[in-house]
Amino acid sequence: MSRSVLVTGGNRGIGLAIARAFADAGDKVAVTYRSGEPPEGFFAVKCDITDGEQVEQAFKEIEAQQGAVEVLVANAGVTRDQLLLRMSDDDFTSVLDTNLTGTFRVVKAAVRKMLRARKGRVVLISSVVGLTGQAGQANYAASKAGLVGFARSLARELGSRNITVNVVAPGFVDTDMTRVLTDEQRQNIVGQVPLARYAQPEEIAASVRFLASEEAAYITGAVIPVDGGLGMGH
């Protein structure tokens, strides 16, 4: 049965791969994007998730187009990397406002209708960095680690209504963000990964789609690493 799916930050990289995976399975897929061009083939809504009013308006448009959101993938995120002593208050708070508080905003908007329907799937996109930490990414790591506690609290809160909340924690993925690295930087990263390669965005998408499927109906509060073994033990 075709479901109404929303992927935030779905216009490129991991988000676009996730949107395509659901569309290929026959779902109705909407994406939000903050900048750049909207992807072809999806109902796209420009939305800055740091703005509560924009989030509310986006959900109104999406519900009018394809019905209440039944599967939410909270993928939108930003980085502002800097060593701690050089990191400004704005560097820290802006990353948390998008990655953590922004996710709170979109999840809250989606869950209202899920509670009425007594069913739903929520998947949050965290990062291996949120589990292992990374020098120069204290703000990003804090925001991504926060998603784990957020998801597990919601798993307990919403489970009796047949709403699952899970986390996917990607490692290093072959996207535009990582392609700007030098060959030496890329080799250093790959050298830390037991599988000795970057992930493809489609591999992250496959795990997300599984968590949103009927086969995963009894999985909630889980953190699924898709990182080639980089973060094992965390």
TrEMBL record:
The keyword Lipid biosynthesis applies. Signal peptide: none annotated. The keyword Coiled coil does not apply. It catalyses: a (3R)-hydroxyacyl-[ACP] + NADP(+) = a 3-oxoacyl-[ACP] + NADPH + H(+). The active site is at Y140 (proton acceptor). Gene3D superfamilies: NAD(P)-binding Rossmann-like Domain. CDD domains: BKR_SDR_c (cd05333). GO terms for biological process: fatty acid biosynthetic process. Residues 3-176 form the Ketoreductase domain. NADP(+) binds at G9, G10, N11, R12, N75, Y140, A141, A142, S143, K144. SMART domains: PKS_KR. Keywords: Fatty acid biosynthesis, Fatty acid metabolism, Lipid biosynthesis, Lipid metabolism, NADP, Oxidoreductase. This is 3-oxoacyl-[acyl-carrier-protein] reductase. PROSITE patterns: ADH_SHORT. InterPro entries: 3oxo_ACP_reduc (IPR011284), KR_dom (IPR057326), NAD(P)-bd_dom_sf (IPR036291), Sc_DH/Rdtase_CS (IPR020904), SDR_fam (IPR002347). Homotetramer. It holds the Pfam family adh_short_C2.
